[in-house]
Amino acid sequence: MRGALSDSATSLDKPSTPLTGLSVSARIVDRDLDVRIDVAPGEVLAVLGPNGAGKSSLLQVIAGLIVPDEGHVRLGDRALTDTTKGVALPPHRRGISLLAQDPLLFPHLSVRDNVAFGPRSRGANTRAARRIADNWLNAVDATVFADRHPAALSGGQAQRVALARALAVDPDLLLLDEPMSALDVDVAPAMRTLLRRVLRDEPARAHPRCAVLVTHDIIDAITLADRLVVVEAGRIVESGPVAEVMSHPRNPFAARIAGLNLLRGTGVVPGTAAENSGPTVEARSPTPDPGDSAPTFGTVLVDELGVDGCVVGDFLPGAPAAAVFAPAAVSVFRTRPGGSPRNVFTVDITEITDRGGIVRVRGDAPQAPGLCADLTPAAVAQLHLTIGTEAFFAVKATEVRVYAC
């Protein structure tokens, strides 16, 4: 990474004990928030969830803008908030920087002085503060803007400067609150690359920096984060490494952002649900070809609808289970298909949308609303699909993953 931070910055108001990461526990009665997260040193945690889920409240607790009714915020060996001991450090004493979707630069200061403001407020003299600012402006490829004022910057340029300002105080924790949401689509990829460079490739620090990223964009999570949590209605409903959650979601919101169909129900022995499925689904256990490495199959019973798939990880008949499959694995027919063993859902088409050369067709089955299939425009035209059309979504059991949830 370009532009290492000078020694002047590391001496400003830093803790003397080594960091062990971030630990947060917060309960806010009025906001119906009750969450706990832990972030290891050097780790980036992505927090996802629908609007109103509690993501912003969580960041405000960490930043010291809200004191929870019960809980704590610990950054390494320092207690930033501890309701049992009456501890609530103000934001400027927490060693935390926040980068939000609005850069919030001081309009009357130059870019260099905006970035130097933090070090100056922590006791650095003018020369040292400007040296730190120049180092970080170089690190975020914004040196050319140093003498400009914020009004002369584009949105992407201003966000680069805001990142340099956030890092100029050498925070032990970086909070990222939808940092790309206000950027044009052609600017956001460059900002992600910059953030990844800052979070992953900066020179080693005495105390590894961790980060919490709140986002609605799955691209942010998969390119920047090590691990993610999904918050819904003030509770953490899913947590794990990014790749694991995106490939095996257990929550509808996580499945939606991962672009997968998710059905949740109860695990049963393969084939035992078919006789109860009625006209809505045809679910038959597949027989692997001779000589193939035979997968283990299981069935998820959703009300009276059985869905067969390949078992991934734990799967116990009688326990909660999920069936997941990609929209691209779904074939669409106007008459019920026969042939190879598969799951077949009778649906009413509810939505047809263009997704850049692929058409996503959404259909509702009685026990499985919102199933999606991805088709070519030609296929949609040949099938004469329109809103309200009855169709059959078919997916082979070998394309479905079933697992405990």
List keywords for this structure.
six-stranded mixed beta sheet, alpha+beta, disordered N terminus, 23% helix, Rossmann fold, 405 residues, OB fold (Dihydrolipoamide Acetyltransferase, E2P), 33% strand
Average pLDDT, rounded to a whole number, is: 86
- Radius of gyration over alpha carbons? 26 Å
3D shape: elongated
Percent strand: 25-35%
Distance between the termini: 41 Å
Which structural class do the helices and strands define? alpha+beta
Can you identify the CATH superfamily of the largest domain?
A: P-loop containing nucleotide triphosphate hydrolases
Please outline the helices and strands.
Blueprint (H helix, E strand, L loop, with lengths): L6 H4 L11 E7 L4 E7 L4 E5 L6 H9 L6 E6 L2 E5 L4 E2 L7 E5 L10 H11 L4 H14 L15 H13 L5 E5 L10 H14 L8 E5 L3 H7 L2 E6 L2 E7 H6 L4 H7 L2 E8 L12 E3 L13 E6 L2 E7 L8 E6 L5 E3 L8 E13 L4 E7 L2 E8 L1 H7 L6 E7 L4 E4 L1
Parallel strand pairs: 3-9, 3-10, 7-8, 8-9, 15-22
Antiparallel strand pairs: 1-2, 1-4, 4-5, 5-6, 10-11, 12-14, 12-16, 13-18, 14-15, 16-22, 17-21, 18-19, 18-21, 19-20
Helix pairs in contact: 3-4, 3-5, 4-5, 5-6
How is this structure best described in words?
This protein has 405 residues and is of the alpha+beta class. It has 2 domains: 239 residues, 3-Layer(aba) Sandwich (Rossmann fold), CATH 3.40.50; 145 residues, OB fold (Dihydrolipoamide Acetyltransferase, E2P) (Beta Barrel), CATH 2.40.50.100. Helix content is 23%, strand content 33%. The strands form 4 sheets. It has a 6-stranded mixed β-sheet with strand order 7-8-9-3-10-11, sandwiched between helices. Strands 13, 17, 18, 19, 20 and 21 form a 6-stranded antiparallel β-sheet that branches. 40% of the residues are buried. The N terminus is likely disordered.
